[in-house]
Amino acid sequence: MGNNPEDIKPSSLLELESTDKALLLPRLDPAKVTSPEEGMVVYDTTSDKFKIYNGSSWIASAGESIYNDDGTIFGDRTVTFSGAGEYMVADSSRQLFVYNSLTSKKEVFTPILEGYVGMYVCGPTVYSNVHLGNVRTFVSFDMIFRYLKFLGYKVRYVRNITDAGHLENDADEGEDRIVKKARLEQIEPMEVVQYYTLDFHNIMRKFNCLPPSIEPTATGHIIEQIEIIEKILENGLAYEVNGSVYFDVLKFNETKKYGKLSNRKVEELIHNTRALEGQSDKKNPQDFALWKKAEPQHVMRWVSPWSQGFPGWHLECTAMSTKYLGKSFDIHGGGMDLKFPHHECEIAQAEASNGTSPVGYWIHTNMLTLNGKKMAKSTGNNILPTDLFTGNTPLLQKEFSPSVVRFFMMQAHYRSILDFGNEALLASEKGYKRLMDALNLLNRLTPSQSSSIDVKGWECSCYNAMNDDFNTPILIAQLFEGVKYINWIEEGQQEISEEDLQILKSTMNSFVFEVLGLTKEQQDNSYSTKLEGVLKILINLRNEARLNKDYALSDKIRDELSVLGIQVKDLKKGIIYTLD
């Protein structure tokens, strides 16, 4: 509905899951689906049947169409395929599918409490400037937060600040990162925390990220972390040695499964975990710290039943997510690099203390590369967000606004690798401007008696994209279909009714600003007014030249404006101009 069948690739078709749920697909001819994969479902326009691909051919469904004559859907329907069983084909405008890292498949999103969503995202460790990999994660979850709210859910979004306990090495060795920074700068650790927390908030505002509902800190929840350790000790799944407390992974694995999120086996961890200095207290190298006894020089310490020390890094997220979202909640998110060991340890801690699996849907964002190479400070292949805004880096040709960078991030699916490069950023800048120009033009459109374009089908396609695991690149492709509609209507090639015009306006503005979180770049009003005045003078001069049949001068003005990125179009109802 609203899609060109030629453009539909297998990656955009929903595979049947074990839940026996399938997303309702646009109507198309299955013969036009390139490289179909076994288990794919399409709605065949030639036979008015659903068809499933069995690996060699398409099998037709038994039963009637689920479409009304006008193309709308009259309800969910069980579809039977000969030799392939029954499947429920659902109206995608009413169901959200989310890729769950725990099960490695897309699942229908069903929150624990209808109408409410609890979401926890691991926030930054505030010992340095937030890097672009962090920003990509937080922008992605801001988009998810926005879309859930847009669908009408009441969302409690918790994103923590790690201000203690994160050692240099995730395997419980080295110095606290914040303490080390404070020592090197000869300032208090909380000065480091304050400075980089404010910097983080400033970057989030520049990228137009909504603030979370709650932003708790690790140091503000020491009591809760101690209480969790006591529960785990009581349950016999941790042990204390010389003032430090460690989680017993092998003991836990006797009744539970450690490694189920990252698909790692404890037996493999035993062979692959190297012995590290300072870990002689551990029963096994794969055990992790719940509480560390502080060395004499460690300035950030708290009193506990075991020693003066500090909590392990993994514990804070378990404590804060449990306190604000409950023992079980809907979504836990973070970067792909946190899947192991951090999120794996969170699951183990929660199950060891509460006896229940803590999270319904685990969502992870993928990594960033720069000009095709992994970002790394050690190699110099690294830029800060502020470098993007100023262009003060040899890795980029020019500066880019936060709105353009956010748009660039949204053009890749959150689970795909995103490469920052000059060509891609420049292309995104042009695309962003096309989108904003179309939105400005949209407000000037006038309706006709009827529509010659399928606006309702296009609107459905926008929802379909986001309901397919927050597929922002497909959504953006649909938004540019909307841009085409706007230009066609303005140029008189298509017509739109008053009702459809309101749908077009509402859908474009809602998905661009409310869901994707894009903003219009602010311009100097006085400069903009003067520029518009100059353009009107030039266009009037060109119009006079055309009336006087001085086509050489008319074409010269048009061509020279085009070189400057100003496109002049002669339409039946008058002359318009757009800026590239």
Automatic annotation (TrEMBL):
Keywords: Aminoacyl-tRNA synthetase, ATP-binding, Cytoplasm, Ligase, Metal-binding, Nucleotide-binding, Protein biosynthesis, Zinc. Its EC number is 6.1.1.16. Pfam families: DALR_2, tRNA-synt_1e. The keyword Ion transport does not apply. GO terms for molecular function: ATP binding; cysteine-tRNA ligase activity; metal ion binding. It comes from the Eukaryota. Its main location: cytoplasm. Residues 461-528 form the Cysteinyl-tRNA synthetase class Ia DALR domain. GO terms for biological process: cysteinyl-tRNA aminoacylation. Its cofactor is Zn(2+). It is found in: Cytoplasm. One of its GO terms (cellular component) is cytosol. Belongs to the class-I aminoacyl-tRNA synthetase family. This is Cysteine--tRNA ligase, cytoplasmic. It comes from Elysia marginata. The lineage of its organism: Eukaryota, Metazoa, Spiralia, Lophotrochozoa, Mollusca.
